[in-house]
Amino acid sequence: MTSRVAFTVNGEKRTLDLDTRTTLLDALREHLKLTGTKKGCDHGQCGACTVIVDGRRINSCLTLAVMHEGDSITTIEGLGTPDKLHPMQAAFVVHDGYQCGYCTPGQICSAVAVLDEIKAGIPSHVTADLGSSPGLSVDEIR
Amino acid sequence: MRPFSYQRAKTAAEAAEAVAQAPGARFIAGGTNLLDLMKLQIETPGHLVDINGLGLDEIETTPEGGLRIGALVRNTDLAADTRVRKDYGLLSRALVAGASGQLRNKATTAGNLLQRTRCPYFYDTNQPCNKRRPGSGCAAIGGFSRNHAIVGASEACIATHPSDMAIAMSALDATVETVRPDGAKRKIAIADFHRLPGTKPEIETVIEAGELITAVTLPKPVGGTHVYHKVRDRASYAFALISVGAIVQKDGTGRVALGGVAHKPWRVEAAEAELPRGAKATVSAMLADAKPTHENAFKVPLIERALGAILTQARG
């Protein structure tokens, strides 16, 4: 069964007619040919599929494309290009922040969004004092 | 996944009606557990009703001085809310102990309560599982049961409920509010929300087909020191082997709920009277009927020590 959905990807409005079972991950990779985002485990356990939707990082493998009508989605392709690296991409290169590189696009999207989460004062399980905002510490980033 | 039709509901009434009308229909909110199970064909809804647009995503104060948490409030937002952090710290702590940032951004309050066990035999469709296929048997009993229940289990099923948030909700005496397809509303105490497996492990909650959770309410704050102690094989992003959610008052009284030990959050209010006498007395009372397996018997002393650490921390 198919359904139509329209959302913005990396600033561009896209409209798709999709089998309702299509995850956002498969919509991005197979239908929009944005293959930067990767399918690592397809079950929300590895983070390789992480994209940023309306400013929040999510696992694109555990959401249906049709659930994102009107949303604004950023993939790794929207963060930077080989000629114009996002500062997070440049930092991953400088600090050798990857091994095989397969899940790296997901980790970079996740890292960019994590900085916004810390800035927004969202606590994590290492946040010592719930009464204050988490600081930009090594433990919080980790 | 098996094919399904999809609709976006605009009102709670429409959503409840739609799920009641179409046999095998399910609500979808965050989808982080449902889609996981649909990919493995453990869940096979023929129709999905998307309830993300229902506007059930606010946290409001109640006339009693408590909080009403909309069913669609994302785990991240619930944990980060200043009122929750200040007056219901156990809930924040439990939420951020669970899953990953990506999952917490998508998962909802109601969905978190409704999530299903991560028992590997439930997940492996080649294995017998009375929960997944009633009457087929339980491969965990006599199998690898390190992560399974030590109390409240049955000969049909020894699975545990995986949620951290539910432990906090149990200790905080939450109430689940629902609406049924005929429009009738009801309130379910969290203690009554999840079932023990008994002879029907496939029925996990008292929620009926088409019944939509609209909110979870908390009573007015009780103060005290709030600690969520989660013991797991990894430092992050793993389910609990055991967890202890506790609220300890200055006079040594308080509340304790246990995770990783049963088919539901394990709270024994009568045992809480033992808290001033210490962890061992309290846990003995809470786990008096415990029947651990050979592989998970370690959970009992582990819980005693975890609660002991909490009580020391709360005193200091």
Query: Largest interface here, residues on each chain?
Result: A-B, 34 and 32 residues
Global mean pLDDT of chain A: 96
User: How does the major sheet of chain B shape up?
Assistant: 5 strands, antiparallel
Basic shape of chain B: globular
Give the helix/strand class of chain B: alpha+beta
Order of helices and strands of chain A: EEHEEEHHHH
Low-confidence parts of chain A lasting 5 or more residues at pLDDT below 50?
none
Helical amount of chain A: 25-40%
Overall radius of gyration of chain B: 19 Å
Q: What would you report as the Rg of chain A, rounded to the nearest angstrom?
A: 16 Å
Euclidean distance between termini CA atoms of chain B: 52 Å
Percent of residues in helices of chain B: 25-40%
Question: From the helix content, strand content and strand pairing of chain A, which structural class follows?
Answer: alpha+beta
- Outline of chain A, from the CA principal axes? globular
What strand line-up does the widest sheet of chain A have?
Answer: 2-1-5-3-4
The major pleated sheet of chain A works out as: 5 strands, mixed
CA-to-CA gap between the ends of chain A? 42 Å
Approximately what portion of the residues of chain A adopt beta-strand conformation? Answer: 15-25%
Low-confidence stretches of chain B: none
What percent strand of chain B? 15-25%
> Helix and strand succession of chain B?
EHEHEEEHHHHHHHEEHEEEEHH
